[in-house]
Structure formats: C-alpha cells, structure tokens
Write a structure and sequence with these properties.
The protein is mainly α. The protein folds into 2 domains: 1-44 and 184-412, Glycosyltransferase (Alpha/alpha barrel), CATH 1.50.10; 60-178, no CATH class. It has helices spanning 26-44, 70-87, 91-107, 132-149, 152-167, 189-205, 212-226, 249-252, 256-272, 276-293, 322-339, 342-359, 391-403, 407-411; strands at 56-57, 63-65, 68-69, 118-119, 125-127, 186-188, 227-228, 233-234, 237-239, 253-254, 305-306, 320-321, 370-371. The chain is globular and about 55 Å long.
Length: 412
C-alpha cells in the first residue's frame, strides 16, 4: 500500500508552496498509521511462543534473526500502549503491549536491575547491559503500559528504571566503558534530551505534575549547554565544564536528527508549561538545524555532520535515515502549529515531498530505513537492531493529531 506523494526530481528539491495550514495532510498520515504501519507490525512482530517481539524483519515482514534487542522491545511496548492511550484501547494492541512487558520484566534485568542490551528468543541474556538507553526505554514502556493497564507493578518498574537511568549519568556504559583516563569526559546530548522526554512521559503517564519542574530545568540545560548560538548548531558532545571542543572529531560531531527530536520534545514540554519563550527558542533551533543539515544538492537531511565541515569519522555520515526525517516532520509540524511561522509549513512540505516517495514501500508497506545520499534504499529491512515500531508510527500519530488539533488536548 502506497502513501507516497508525487516523485520529485533533484532540481525540484526545496521548491515549496506557501501554505496557511498543514491540515490537508491529516487523512494521509492517519491512514498510513492505521492501514499500513500498524498492520505490518501487528502481523509480523509478536512472538506468541516465547513472548516479546521479532524486530529483525525483512521487506515483506519475514524474520531474519530472532535476537531481541532491549531498545527495540521496550519501544514496541511503549508504542502499542501509546496507541491505546491516544486512540482508544483496542484489545489486540493492549495484548501485544502485555506480551512484551511480561517478557521483559521477567527476563530482561541483571542482578543489579539494569536491563541487558539483548536477549535470545527464549529470554537468555546475549549482550551485557552496557547501554543506558535500555533502561531509558524501559521507563517509557513501563509508564505507558501502566497508564493503559492500571498495573501498579508497571508504575513501580517505570520509577525504578528511571532511577537506574539517572544513576548512570556520568558513566553511562558502566564497567563496559572503553574510554580510559587519557580521553577527557564529555557530556552527551542524547542522555539529557531523553531525560527531558522521560520526565514528560512520567508526568503524563503517571499523572504526576511533580516531574514538571525538573523537566523544564532539563529543557533549559539542553538549550543552554549543547546549542552554540554563534555557530547556530546543536552539538552532540560538550566538555564536562560545558565548553565546546572544536579540536576533536568527537567534539565537532553533529547529529541533526537528534537536534530535531530534542527540539520537539522541548516544544511539547514548554508549551504545556506555558513557557512560550522556550517554544520560540526551540523553534529557532529547528530552523537552524534544517538550514545546516539539508543536503542542497540531492535533498534530504544528513545523518552525521562535522561542525566545521571537516572529514567525518563515520563512513555513513551522508546517508539519509528514516528516523531523522520522521523527527524532522514532527518538529516542523509542531513548530508551525505552536508559532504560526509559515517557514515551518514550507519546511514540512519540503521534507514530506522528499521523504515519502523514497522511504515508503508501495509493495509491502512501512518505510525502508536506510537510503544512500541520492535517495536510493541500501537495505531492504523494515526492522532490525536499530529500527522497530517506534519513530515512524510515533511520527504518524503525532503529526496526524497535530493536524486534527487534538495532540495538546490529549497530552495536557
């Protein structure tokens, strides 16, 4: 099933028509969610024999590996729970969320309560709990599952996992850290943007407004620490003292997708708290990130960049990834609705018209994950170690609700 816009050419990229509203996208995005994306994952991801989910899915949904990666597993718990919360509980969605929650809370933790990075299909640990983001997505999944199930154990698990996440702030990889004392410690945008998001999730899912003050403090920390107002870029790493490091590859590293995702987190939290100045600051970062990160020759948004345009250590730096464009669509749609600035409607249209013809799969549904710089898919997979039922359905859900003017009514 295809939801693609008309294919454009390289010379057409960036040409948009001024719009007063994005509402006409509503039906396309809601249909893509309900008729295309959700059915693909409902059909192919549940492991009815052992619990949890298959996430390594080829183009047609066939399973090519049964290992269960914690990031992907908890994201699916969150997504199906979130669908129940925002669109109304459906038994099949709640059952799929429970299938993952029960499996992960039974098999997922080491003796210190940290979530492993991966499990075997049957639930045996296969990779150590070296990633703090395993705990991160456990917070999201457990909190959202609590909201729709009423299971008090899930509420406790969300809070426990959040405390585990916080405890790893200064040494996220724990004893599996490879860096030695010769490398100066750095603070990472990813940790703090996700902390801000976790606080918003906990406030909403647990109906606990006490998280709001810390969420706003974290939002301000992200903007004040990682945004460089002179260079107009959002850095992925800063030194421990908060200064920018332009002498190393790590210090100059930029991830435009993270900046865009972080900014819609910030706009979402700031608007709910009545902090209009923070909304405008985040919107300005969205615009600057798109100006810097958009490929002027072939269109699309780069995966990684160097702040000074020097060679990037990552060989895939100029690829175009699904999640980056998903987050850009959310960020521009939200910025347009909250600020009324027409430039964001133009940017949304530009990103939409570039992304849908290239990422969407008209034969089997869902989106491809990885394109080369020119916009051609490099992999056939629809799910794997890093892609699952998360960025794409979240984008479709948030955008369609923004177009329906219901998002902020249901998240306040």
């Amino acid at each position: 099933m295809s939801f693609c816009a008309t294919q454009d050419t390289a010379s057409d990229v960036g040409k948009t028509t001024s719009m007063t509203s994005l509402d006409h996208y509503r039906n396309q995005y809601r249909a893509a969610l309900l008729d295309d994306c959700i059915p693909f994952w409902e059909k192919h991801c549940p492991d009815r024999d052992y619990g949890g989910y298959f996430t390594c899915l080829d183009r047609d949904g066939t399973v090519y590996d049964t290992e269960k990666f914690m990031w992907m597993q908890w994201r699916i718990v969150w997504m199906f729970s979130e669908l129940c919360s925002k669109l109304g509980t459906r038994t099949e969605w709640l059952d799929i969320a429970r299938l993952g929650y029960d499996f992960l809370t039974t098999h997922g933790k080491d003796d210190k309560g940290r979530y492993y990075f991966a499990l075997s299909r049957e639930g045996r640990p296969t990779m150590a709990p070296y990633s703090v983001y395993s705990d991160c997505f456990a917070v999201m999944g457990a909190a959202a599952y609590y909201r729709v199930s009423g299971d008090e154990a899930a509420r406790r698990e969300a809070l426990r996992a959040y405390n585990s996440y916080l405890s790893r702030e200064h040494r996220p990889k724990g004893e599996w850290t490879k860096e030695l004392e010769g490398r100066p410690p750095m603070r990472k945008l990813g940790f703090y943007m996700m902390k801000a998001n976790l606080l918003a999730v906990l406030e909403e899912c647990l109906s606990d407004p006490t998280f709001r003050a810390e969420a706003l403090a974290t939002v301000r920390y992200v903007l004040d620490t990682f945004w460089n107002p002179d260079m107009k870029v959002m850095f992925e790493f800063v030194r421990a003292d908060g200064s920018f490091d332009l002498e190393s590859m790590q210090g100059r590293h930029l991830t435009p997708g993270h900046a865009l995702e972080a900014m819609w987190f910030i706009m979402n939290s700031a608007y709910r708290a009545g902090e209009t100045q923070l909304v405008e600051r985040a919107a300005d970062v969205v615009r600057a990130t798109l100006d810097f990160g958009w490929d002027p020759e072939y269109g699309g948004i780069y995966y990684f960049m160097d702040a000074l345009g020097k060679p990037h250590v990552e060989l895939q730096w100029n690829m175009k990834l699904w999640w980056v464009h998903n987050e850009a669509l959310v960020a521009t749609a939200m910025a347009h609705q909250l600020t009324g600035r027409e430039e964001f409607a133009d940017w949304f249209t530009r990103i939409h018209e570039w992304s849908w013809p290239r990422f969407a799969d008209p034969e089997y549904g869902e989106w491809f994950a990885y394109l080369d710089r020119y916009g051609t898919p490099t992999h056939t997979l629809k799910g794997g170690k890093w892609k699952t039922f998360f960025h794409h359905p979240r984008m479709l859900l948030v955008c369609s609700m923004l177009f329906e003017h219901t998002w902020f009514k249901k998240t306040s």
